[in-house]
Amino acid sequence: xxxxxxxxIELMFAGMGIVFLFLxxxxxxxxxxxxxxxxxxxxxxxxxxxxxVAQNTATDTNYIAAITAAIHQYRSTH
Length: 78
Prior knowledge:
The structure is a single chain. 77% of the residues lie in helices and 0% in strands. It is mainly α. It has a domain at 1-43. The radius of gyration is 29 Å and the shape is flat.
């Protein structure tokens, strides 16, 4: 019984070691790939161009009113 138990423990440590090595290599490879991508494909700086805001606020208030009414109706029935 002890021989079977020691074989099981050896197999467990071997499996855990292989998984640990694989995950360590995976983290290293991902970090290297990230640095390579940042080096050869840098992000372009964001310009100060403002995004135009929608001018039709009446439609927005109608949507807000409809959503508020739907939420109120749902909460009153549940």
